[in-house]
Amino acid sequence: MKFLWTMVVILLGTTTYAQATDVETGRKIFKKTCAVCHNLTDKKKVGPGLKGVYGRSSVAEIGTLTEEKLHRWLKNPRGVKPRTRMPTYKVMADPVNRQAMIDFLQTL
Ligand code: HEC
């Protein structure tokens, strides 16, 4: 039993959000997928400008944009806000890509 719990702890420890801090990967995905709707400044395009987005209060009224909130939003915006105009992107289904994106957003 103790062994089993140890395994559970080890697995949880390694599978929760990826550790990679790949800002460049995030930037590339942003250019390809997000830039049509978002500026990197605070100027609105289709969606809100994303300058300083990490940790600020959400324009989309989903609360403070913490890391956890951003993971949920990027994975499935409509799961957080059913009538949002922001679509779900396959590339954001991958937690490694999501973390890279969040690391990138954190630099803005
Ligand atoms: C088709 C246009 C469109 C695309 C493409 C798009 N978004 Fe959005 N995004 C929006 C809109 C519109 C909102 C505001 C949602 C609302 O108010 O319901 C938004 C909101 C957001 C927010 C929350 C901002 C806030 O202040 O609440 C973040 C973060 C975000 N988008 C990141 C991204 C990322 C990262 C990508 C690329 C993977 C992306 N978006 C692609 C339209 C888009």
Summary?
By secondary structure, the protein is mainly alpha-helical. The protein contains five helices and no strands.
Keywords:
single chain, 108 residues, mainly alpha, Cytochrome Bc1 Complex, Chain D, domain 2, 5 helices, 46% helix, elongated, binds heme C
Secondary-structure topology with pairs:
Blueprint: H1 2-15, H2 23-34, H3 67-75, H4 77-80, H5 95-105
Helix pairs in contact: 2-5, 3-5
Bound molecules: heme C (HEC).
Explain this structure to me?
The protein contains five helices and no strands. It is mainly α. It has a single domain, classed as Cytochrome c-like domain (Cytochrome Bc1 Complex, Chain D, domain 2). Helix 2 packs across helix 5 and helix 3 crosses helix 5. The model has no long low-confidence stretch (mean pLDDT 89). Heme C (HEC) binds next to helix 2 and helix 3.
Mean pLDDT rating: 89
- C-alpha geometry: elongated
Count of discrete alpha- or pi-helical segments spanning 4 or more residues:
5
CATH superfamily: Cytochrome c-like domain
Helix content estimate: 40-55%
Total beta strand runs: 0
Spatial gap, N to C terminus: 47 Å
Question: How many domains comprise the coordinates?
Answer: 1
Query: What would you call the structural class?
Result: mainly alpha
